[in-house]
């Protein structure tokens, strides 16, 4: 099962520029969360702060009792091993093959034999749909394939926390849809805690259990997906609706004069519809996070805004409680059980090295 991540009063500055301040939230164990926000709001900086790659000026990030901000460097280094991090551009070594890139963490952090490393790497390659590309160099494959190789590398140590930095950037809508399904399937297989940084509203609407948003150097909101998706807070509503009218401008935020000059927003057209959350692909176990989340959210329902409360009630009125899968489903499966589409679909399936994503 994944590990809870508790963020308390986190503040990050570069020189005199405050990136964000007093950020507090909890990533529930085993659930999928998304962090939204306009460009330049420090979402990637936040991701790197969780894993201790950047050091905030104030606050704590608690993981299994270790503070990733203030604990000794040795404790932070050891705790990083529970993380799998998928960088925005894949961050692959250009002189290494796809196979060797994915194998790198195993060779660096374990004493496994090469035969065992090959078995694990090929399983992860199968899961992300890269069979046939393992011998290629990063420069010989497409950007989407490099992203999937980066995700496979993030999975080889069976992490309990998976961080994904804009996994959809540069992907077309079809491949983004397959990527969304892949992320849900990974959570079903591993029960890992996941945080995805993205601008993509389709991913935000269909993938996570929880959603947050950074804007104006603050965490505007974080909580169950229904809270943000029904929010009428001006910056959140503008971002979700993708319109120019509102506090978000080209340089992150508009001044008062610009806001005053805008036309009055049209009358409320009713509650924003919430699309159903993706379910695991056929043949995979139910997500254990679903039952845990239902109990957690129903326990706080009286504290939610009325629109979010109604959305939660509608969601759970048609979603029966799922039994928890038996023990033993907490790691990725052996080769041959990948769930991505078969070769020839032209998407994120088990394509050959020549597939376009």
From TrEMBL:
Q: Note one Pfam family from the annotation.
A: ABC_tran
Instruction: Write the record's keywords in alphabetical order, separated by commas.
Output: ATP-binding, Nucleotide-binding, Transport
Give any GO molecular function from the UniProt entry. ATP binding
Domain annotation ABC transporter: ranges: 5-241
- The UniProt regions of compositional bias labelled Gly residues, in chain numbering, are 346-357
Q: Which domain of life is it from?
A: Bacteria
Span list, region Disordered = 306-357
- UniProt lists compositionally biased (Polar residues) regions at 328-342
Official protein name in the record: ATP-binding cassette domain-containing protein
Q: What is the lineage of its organism?
A: Bacteria, Bacillati, Actinomycetota, Actinomycetes, Kitasatosporales
């Amino acid at each position: 099962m994944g590990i809870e991540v508790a963020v308390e009063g986190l503040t990050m500055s570069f020189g005199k520029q405050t990136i964000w301040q007093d950020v507090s939230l909890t990533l529930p164990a085993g659930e999928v969360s998304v962090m939204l926000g306009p460009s330049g709001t420090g979402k990637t900086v936040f991701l790197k702060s969780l894993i201790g790659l950047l050091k905030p000026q104030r606050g704590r990030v608690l993981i299994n009792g270790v503070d990733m901000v203030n604990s000794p460097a040795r404790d932070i280094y050891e705790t990083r091993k529970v993380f799998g991090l998928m960088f925005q551009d894949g961050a692959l070594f250009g002189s290494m093959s796809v196979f060797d890139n994915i194998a790198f963490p195993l060779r660096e952090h374990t004493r496994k034999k090469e035969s065992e490393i090959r078995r694990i790497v090929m399983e992860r390659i199968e899961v992300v749909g890269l069979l046939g590309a393992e011998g290629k160099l990063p420069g010989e494959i497409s950007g989407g394939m490099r992203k999937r190789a980066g995700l496979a590398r993030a999975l080889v140590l069976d992490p309990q926390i998976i961080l994904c930095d804009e996994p959809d950037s540069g992907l077309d809508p079809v491949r983004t849809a397959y990527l969304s399904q892949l992320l849900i399937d990974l959570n079903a297989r591993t029960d890992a805690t996941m945080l995805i940084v993205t601008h993509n509203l389709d991913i935000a609407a269909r993938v996570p259990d929880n959603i947050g948003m950074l804007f104006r150097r603050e965490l505007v909101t974080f909580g169950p997906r229904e809270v943000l998706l029904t929010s009428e807070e001006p910056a959140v509503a503008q971002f979700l609706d993708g319109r120019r009218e509102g506090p978000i401008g080209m340089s992150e935020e508009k001044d008062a004069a610009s806001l005053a000059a805008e036309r009055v927003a049209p009358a409320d057209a009713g509650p924003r519809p919430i699309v159903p959350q993706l379910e695991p692909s056929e043949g995979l176990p139910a997500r254990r996070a679903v039952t845990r989340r239902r109990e957690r959210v129903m326990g706080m329902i009286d504290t939610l805004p009325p629109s979010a409360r109604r959305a939660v009630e509608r969601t759970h009125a048609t979603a029966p409680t799922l039994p928890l899968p038996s023990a033993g489903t907490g790691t990725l499966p052996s080769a041959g059980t990948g769930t991505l589409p078969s070769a020839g679909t032209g998407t994120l399936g088990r394509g050959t090295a020549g597939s376009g994503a």
